[in-house]
Specification:
310 residues, alpha/beta, seven-stranded mixed β-sheet, 13 strands, binds beta-D-galactofuranose, TAT_signal
Length: 310
């Protein structure tokens, strides 16, 4: 789906308006919708001519969108790659066309570092570590006794946040909680429907699960429906930790259904537009521009809810 929300106006002083081609993963979650709004609003505020494409979570759609931007000779291409592999060919075409590429949100594996200039986004491995650390606080607060049997709802298979959040969580578990066990783990593709469907299967195969670690709030919200349908209390019978911090996640936490949330900031638009201008002007920029994020326990939910912008 393409929409050309070009502002048209030339920026102050008659300098040519910056044209930015942006390929978005899709609209799979609350986080993604907030990220899209942030990119579109920031491009408008910056007076850039934004060409925006929603790939509906298909890599081939992102590749054709990037080819489109190359054909349209945009000044800069930015995208959030749905998965980490398979980008070298199209990024080489952008390089040959002398169009700089900026990654936002998710990163890529590539054989050639010159194929993108910078990543504006979170440290997902650290988010995984933070999830394990806050789960320890949740277990203590709940006075949990006995085995810790974790179900893990993974993000989209092959996506940087899914790979790295699982890695970070396991790193802390192996180092500090040898008694914890991930008894079942499967992708819910970052969606509510996926979380609900997979969690109900988990409850069939592993009825003694007592912790859920979900790679995003949307899958946790879907899982809550499955847990309640099975006659169990989310946040009590099954303790829940997830990552993102969207408003609906905070609502569920204020209702006692989620025990802690690790924030992953989707509001990358302003940082992206700032770096696009620098890149267009040929300035050097940091290789990784990280976003600021916090972590929240259940007793902070009510107070924090009014502050949530997405
Ligand atoms: C994380 C982002 C992930 C979110 C999900 O930066 O890539 O994708 O955690 C979203 O909600 O679908």
């Amino acid at each position: 789906k393409e929409d050309d929300s070009s502002t048209g106006s030339s920026s102050a002083g008659g300098a040519k308006t910056i044209s930015l081609g942006f390929s978005q993963v899709g609209s799979e979650s609350g986080w993604r919708s907030a990220n899209t709004t942030s990119v579109k609003d920031a491009a408008k505020d910056a007076g850039y001519n934004l060409k925006f494409s929603d790939a509906q979570q298909k890599q081939e759609n992102q590749i054709s969108a990037i080819r489109n931007f190359i054909a349209q000779k945009v000044d800069v291409i930015a995208f959030s790659p749905v998965v980490v592999t398979g980008w070298d060919a199209v990024l080489k075409e952008a390089k040959a066309a002398k169009i700089p590429v900026v990654l936002t949100d998710r990163s890529v594996e590539t054989s050639d570092d010159s194929l993108f200039v910078t990543l504006v986004g979170s440290d997902f491995t650290d988010e995984g570590r933070r999830a394990a650390k806050i789960l320890d606080k949740v277990l203590t607060k709940a006075g949990h006794k006995g085995a810790v049997k974790i179900a893990q709802l993974e993000g989209t298979t092959g996506a940087a946040p899914a790979i790295e959040r699982a890695k970070g969580f396991k790193e802390v578990m192996d180092a500090e909680h040898k008694d914890w066990k991930i008894v079942v783990s499967q992708t819910g593709d970052f969606t509510r429907a996926g979380g609900k469907q997979v969690m109900s299967a988990f409850l069939q195969s592993n009825p003694d699960v007592n912790v859920l670690f979900a790679h995003n709030d949307d899958m946790a919200i879907g899982a809550i429906q499955a847990i309640e349908a099975a006659g169990k209390k989310p946040g009590t019978d099954i303790l829940i930790v997830c990552i993102d911090g969207v408003k609906d996640g905070f609502v569920a936490m204020s209702e006692g259904k989620i025990n802690a949330i690790v924030e992953c900031n989707p509001l990358l638009g302003p940082q992206l537009m700032d770096v696009v201008k620098k890149v267009k002007d040929g300035e050097t920029v940091e290789r990784w521009i990280k976003t600021k994020e916090s972590d929240f326990m259940q007793d902070q939910a009510k107070a924090e809810l009014p502050n949530r912008k997405y």
